Amino acid sequence: VGVSLSAASRHTSVLRDAGLTTSQQIGATVLHTLTPLGAALLRQPRGLVRESADVPPALPGCEGHRKVLP
């Protein structure tokens, strides 16, 4: 996928902290699941989401964050 383990871990932490996913450890495996909010945001028509320069990056070095319009 081209993402380091530390970057993937930071991304999953941001998604979890935002209430978009949950994480459950099962032995040596971690299962990441969408919450109802995360699933609802993914179902939004593309026209309701736009690129925004006024959204601060959640992680250092991240570009192209999207913001849901009110």
Provide structural commentary.
By secondary structure, the protein is an alpha+beta fold. Helix content is 30%, strand content 26%. The protein is built from 2 helices and 4 strands, in the order αββαββ. A two-stranded antiparallel ribbon has the order 1-2. A two-stranded antiparallel ribbon has the order 3-4. A hairpin with a 2-residue loop joins β1 and β2. The C terminus is likely disordered.
Provide a concise account of the structure shown:
The chain is an alpha+beta fold. The chain has helices spanning 5-17, 36-43; strands spanning 21-26, 29-34, 49-51, 66-68.
Poorly predicted tracts of residues: 55-70
**pLDDT averaged residue by residue:** 77
Strand share of the residues? 25-35%
Number-wise, the strands total 4
Class derived from helix and strand content:
alpha+beta
Helix coverage percent of residues? 25-40%
Give the strand order, joined by hyphens, for the main sheet. 1-2
Order of helices and strands: HEEHEE
Morphology: globular
Q: What Rg do the Cα atoms give?
A: 14 Å
> What is the straight-line distance between the termini?
33 Å
